[in-house]
Amino acid sequence: MEELELFKKKIISYIDKVLDGGVVLLPFLDEAKVSIVEEVINKNRINAYKYGGIINSDRVRYILSPYEVLESDFKIIVYKIKYNKKFININHRHVLGNLMALGIKRECIGDIVFNDNLDIFFACTKEISSFIKEEFKSLNQASIELEEIAYKVENIIKYDEKLCFLASLRLDVIISSAYSFSRSEALEYIKNGLVYINHINILNPSHIVKELDEISVRHKGRVKVMSTGGETKSGRLKVILGKRI
User: What is the rounded distance in angstroms from the CA atom of residue 71 to the CA atom of residue 61?
Assistant: First the structure.
């Protein structure tokens, strides 16, 4: 939490610069930092634009600017990893781990995306892209090549759905069921600022969740309320929850 407090102070320090006509480009941010940026810009009424280089990006860069911006202003490069799909089994952890092993900061890397054809793409900051192209040569002890792409790649979001019978649509009730937490565990996550709904940090356990809201618990994944409707004879609500896979 100390890291997030320092980050918030940094964003607040940029306000006067932007109000005076300056422009600030941030690195790739996770959901917790996105929430902080949104809070600060909404309170201070400064313009902010976000882009992750990949459609439906979870990790995005922000530009704080009084002027309109272009996609190229975000300085994001998207690479396709070319590898022998027949003989190499690669997952998200392999890609991120190998990039981090090069000494690259996490904030320099955006989303890592696999499509149904096992093609792998990742976004990175333009500032670090040449180094990555030069140094990122292998995965799982097998040779790879990086190809910079100009076409759009989409992060296809899929959910594993389950039907739940819940006492209410309170946030603590929903995440207890979705993440198999005890009620006390759910309350602890909420109290510690680790729960978000649609990228907004929620500290109220009695907050009523709505249909199509997406909930995330930091480091535990995301769950979407796919549908609500109908009651059992005992008065419990029928809710379909979808866990992102």
Answer: 11
**8 A C-beta contact, residue 95 and residue 164:** no
CA 223 to chain centre: 13
CB 11 within 8 A of CB 32: no
Name 89's bridge partners: none
What amino acid is encoded at 182 in this protein? Answer: S
Would you state the CATH architecture of domain 76-148?
2-Layer Sandwich (3.30)
Task: Quote the pTM value.
Answer: 0.86
pLDDT digits (tens, 9 = 90+) for 7-34: 999 999 999 999 999 999 999 999 999 9
CATH architecture of 2-73: 2-Layer Sandwich (3.30)
Q: How many Å apart are CA 58 and CA 222, to the nearest integer?
A: 11
3-class SS letters over 116-175: CCCCEEEEEEHHHHHHHHHHCCEECCEECEEEECCCCCECCCCEEEEEEEECCCEHHHHH
Measured distance CA(75)–CA(104) in Å, rounded: 17
Q: What architecture is the 159-244 domain classified under in CATH?
A: Roll (3.10)
DSSP code for 32 = H
H or E element that contains 221: strand 221-231
